[in-house]
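Exercise (ungraded).
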Amino acid sequence: MTRPDEARFAGLLREHKAILHKVAFTYAGNPEDRRDLVQEMAIQLWRSFPRFDGRVKFSTWAYRVSMNVAVSWLRGEHRRPRDTVPIEDLEHEIAAAESTLGEASDNMRVLRGLIEGLDELNRALILLYLDGHGADEIAEILGITPGNVTTRVNRLKQRLQEGFARLEQPLEKTA
Amino acid sequence: MNVTLEDLRSEWAGHARRLEEQLRTTAQIAREDWIERQRERVRAAGPFRWFEMAVWIATLILLGDFLAGNAGQPLLFASALVLDAWVIATGVTAIRQQQAVRSLDYGQPVTALQERVEALRIARIRAFNVSFLTGQIVWWIPFFVVLVKGVAGVNLYANPWFVQFALVNLAAGAAIIPMAIWVSRRFGERLAKTSAIRHIADSIAGRDIAAAREAIEKLRRFAGQA
């Protein structure tokens, strides 16, 4: 990568780094894993940037790369022993993400519990939906048709509603 | 309480906005020194790690030297040739696999890239199984004969006990293949105390390949292709 490309990459990554933290929060259960995952995603983005040709938006591309790393990480393909991964000084960023996404309401805690029950592909789908992306953009990131996205989001809505209903039942009984 | 996904979506949007605001005040990722470290890391990791490459080349040179020095002795020459072919084949396979992994484009859509990753995983497991299982034969007799001749200068083929030695070792080497498969399938999970042993057992037993195939099927179902 040339120096101007590196500067361009740095600017784009700074602008979109929340994507990394949101994906890490969806896929990793504890702060140490999230830190490792954010680092893996940032490294992969940096390595892959020379192939970024601008045919899709940078954010779309960054979601693809981050989610591909996260899915591989969840399947154990990317997981390396922690002592071989130099921990970069990401503490402030991780702390910011932990405090923001961690100070969640009861609803968000329940939602995260339900997300953890989803497989890696549906996690990607629900995160993109929560992040406000439309069916076309979700389809572009995941590599499926927009119609398929709509069907799957509806199924997830139903599943999440059922999950909420199940969780509420004991509360209602005790109330 | 009736919470819909739409309610959660707007609540999530609030959290995401706050996260972006907080991250704007930090600038750790993509700082100049961070980029410099990544550059060094990429530079350090070649297509085949330097140490592995050095060992591989040294082995080929030693075997080449042995072949040249024993061209007049057909049995020793053939043993070294088998060993040489095995070392070349496993080395070239390893290089090709590492290049294939490096050529993965993580900017591809998730289902497409993950299917490619799983296909590479299947290829990697198959290559490991072939090299591990054929290695049981290659390393038992040819390696031992070449090693003894190369280090001590003794030609084991000239020893009157060699035929018995070779038959016993060949039988043991050949028996290890079905035995390794059987033990991995029967006791793999119980024997595997460490993840490395578990990976070897899962690879030999074919469980890893089955899992990778299942993952491909799942990806295709998700993408609506199956």
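Further reading is listed at the end of the chapter. For now, observe: Chain B touches chain A through 50 residues (CB under 8 Å). Chain B has nine helices and no strands.
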